[in-house]
Design a protein that fits this description.
CATH class of chain B: Mainly Alpha
Distance between the termini of chain A: 27 Å
Number of strands of chain B: 0
Strand order of the largest sheet of chain A: 7-8-9-3-10-11
CATH topology of the largest domain in chain A: Rossmann fold
Structural class of chain B: mainly alpha
Radius of gyration of chain B: 20 Å
Helix content of chain B: over 70%
Number of helices of chain B: 11
CATH architecture of the largest domain in chain A: 3-Layer(aba) Sandwich
Oligomer: heterodimer
Shape of chain A: globular
Strand content of chain A: 35-45%
Number of domains of chain A: 2
Number of domains of chain B: 1
Largest sheet of chain B: none
CATH topology of chain B: MetI-like fold
Number of strands of chain A: 21
Strand content of chain B: under 5%
CATH superfamily of chain B: MetI-like
CATH class of the largest domain in chain A: Alpha Beta
CATH superfamily of the largest domain in chain A: P-loop containing nucleotide triphosphate hydrolases
Shape of chain B: globular
Radius of gyration of chain A: 22 Å
Helix content of chain A: 10-25%
């Protein structure tokens, strides 16, 4: 599928958005940044809800907007689904009425999803005859997502769909979002300021700061870059897409293999079918470095790594180290003292001890 | 029967005038209210102020200017005469025109408030669900603004029933053509027919109270946009 291209330039009061995005035509691309970084403006421009002063938008080989020639496809003619931060259901319609609103307006031969499928995917079949006012926040947002899917979009835009929900409602919805990712062949652009959501869901990451795209790339590579502000955060770390290799029933440990035939990670977790893939996050603060494979330790995961680069952390007591383990990135945050003691050099081979591995999803 | 034939004629004429005025105002007022609620144009202020003028002006002032404009020497009167329609002053048509102008803010303002209150979001949602602007207006805006339309209709109707000054100025006092209830009451009082005046005035009082009761009791339990 042809990727998505969006060149947008717009000025609002003191804020300027100026981005040139090339996004993959599949999977979830996250637009990540703080509030006011321009994430939502990008999304609104893609949907045609806002008009950038200079814009070129091309999706799936079809031009939606080209300010150079004055072409602007109005929002109702763009095949997007839009999930707003608040569910924004129509209060005068039942849940079914809301779901069918977009579905009815799509030509039958272009419909890719029917109401039953969407209900099953988001677990809302029992809510069909309810009024939006009687739904919980999580239920309403699931209906909002299903409603967007039922308009058979070629691009699904999600504007912080979890931000208005409390953490237990978030946990309720995240599995449904993962199912969307696994079961639907619709590219998603997901706006968020929550790194944990992005780490869990996204395949591609665009980092936005003050209206500019600081980075754009596969999530694994982008999270591991030392030159971005991401690496400086308290929850900096890398995500790795691992394959289940085996299960130790006696100790209840799951063996995961790093991509590219790398070494195994062992994590305390109930069994999963062998061969299935799992995404894990390794936080930089949970990685310590050692010159020897210190076997006399309670730490399970010791991986042979090579130092790629070092960089000062914002906290002067710390340094950030980017590492490579059989082609996969890893980040470590250690004290500057330890770095000097170990005499770390790029290219140096060491052992990384990983205190904890978080399974995402 | 305490109400005689001329009283009943006046009541019938009043109801006819108020119904027609309300229908015309809903048709004319909806696009005006929509424009006022959505536009960022510089004209929003001046147009809003002109629409609201009948709220503060004495009805005789509006009636006077309408009389001048619609009369044989006024610019509208000249135009209607040139088209072979004669003038509309001292006719039922004149009354309808006067009532539409006079009751305009009572219809436009509730509609504008309803359109304002729903905000931009429902329109954006509808657009991302493939609804064209007109489709959105019919299937989203109108249902969401229903309380506003109910209020606007009731106020427009009731306010037209209650007018006096404008009617007298441009309609005069012609039985079954321009003599509405309020003018009829005035006639009764002039003629010292207090019993008849009481019956008519009492009916008006009761009618107005009931209309407002329905309006204010219905305000509760209004559902908002979620």
């Amino acid at each position: 599928m042809t990727p998505l291209r969006a060149r947008l330039k717009l000025t609002r009061d003191a804020f300027t958005l100026d981005v040139d995005l090339h996004l993959p035509g599949r999977g979830i691309s996250a637009l990540f940044g703080h509030s006011g970084s321009g994430k939502t403006s990008c999304l609104r421009c893609l949907a045609g809800l806002e008009r950038a002063s200079q814009a070129f938008v091309e999706v799936d080989g079809v031009v939606w907007e080209d300010s150079a020639s004055g072409y602007f496809l109005p929002p109702h003619l763009r095949p997007v689904g839009y999930v707003f931060q608040e569910a924004s259901l129509f209060p005068h319609l039942s849940v079914r009425g809301n779901l069918e609103f977009g579905w009815r307006r799509v030509a039958p031969r272009e419909r890719k999803v029917d109401v039953e499928q969407a209900c099953q995917l988001l677990g809302i079949g029992h809510l069909l005859e309810r009024r939006p006012a009687t739904l919980s926040g999580g239920e309403a947002q699931r209906v909002g997502i299903a409603r967007a899917l039922l308009s058979s979009p070629r691009l699904l835009l999600m504007d912080e769909p979890l931000a208005a929900l409390d953490s237990s409602r978030k946990r309720e919805i995240l599995p449904y979002l993962e199912r969307l990712h696994d079961e639907l062949d619709v590219p998603v652009i997901y706006v968020s300021h929550a790194l944990d959501e992005v780490a869990r869901l996204a395949d591609h990451l665009v980092l936005l700061e003050e209206g500019k795209a600081m980075a754009s790339g596969p999530i694994g590579d982008t999270l591991a870059r030392l030159d971005l502000s991401l690496a400086q955060g308290e929850d900096a770390g890398v995500v790795l897409e691992c394959a289940v290799r085996g299960y130790d029933a006696h100790y209840q440990l799951l063996d995961l293999q790093l991509p590219g035939g790398g070494p195994l990670l062992r994590i305390a977790h109930p069994t999963r079918p062998p061969g299935s893939t799992l995404r894990v996050k390794v936080q930089a603060r949970d990685v310590s470095l050692s010159l020897t494979q210190d076997c006399a330790s309670s730490i399970l995961n010791r991986l042979p790594v090579r130092v790629k680069a070092c960089r000062a952390a914002h906290n002067p007591a710390h340094v950030l180290i980017s590492l490579e383990v059989s082609g996969n990135p890893l980040l470590a945050r250690i004290t500057r003292y330890s770095a000097d003691q170990l005499g770390l050099q790029p290219g140096q081979a060491l052992w990384a001890q990983i205190k904890s591995v978080a399974l995402l999803g | 029967m305490p109400l005689d034939a001329s009283d009943l004629g006046a009541i019938w004429l009043t109801l006819k005038l108020a119904s027609l005025t309300t229908v015309i105002l809903l048709i004319v007022g909806t696009p005006i209210a929509w424009w006022l609620a959505r536009t960022r144009s510089w004209w929003r202020g001046p147009v809003g102020a002109v629409i609201a003028l009948p709220l503060v002006l004495p009805p005789t002032v509006i009636g006077f200017y309408l009389l001048i404009a619609l009369g044989p020497h006024g610019w509208i009167g000249q135009a209607t005469q040139a088209m072979g329609l004669g003038t509309v002053v001292f006719s039922f048509t004149g009354l309808v025109i006067g009532s539409v102008v006079y009751s305009m803010p009572f219809v436009v303002q509730p509609l504008q408030n309803a359109f304002d209150a729903m905000g931009q979001r429902p329109l954006e949602v509808a657009a991302t669900l493939r609804a064209s602007p007109w489709d959105t207006f019919v299937h989203v805006v109108l249902p969401l603004a229903r309380p506003g339309f109910v209020t606007a209709s009731i106020l427009g109707f009731a306010h037209t029933v209650g007018e006096f000054g404008v009617v007298l100025m441009i309609g005069g006092n012609i039985p079954d053509k321009t003599r509405v209830v309020s003018v009829q009451i005035f006639d009764h009082v002039e003629a010292m027919a207090y019993t008849q005046a009481h019956w008519l005035a009492g009916s008006m009082l009761l009618f107005s109270f009931l209309v407002l009761l329905v309006l204010y009791a219905g305000r509760r339990g209004k559902t908002g946009w979620s």
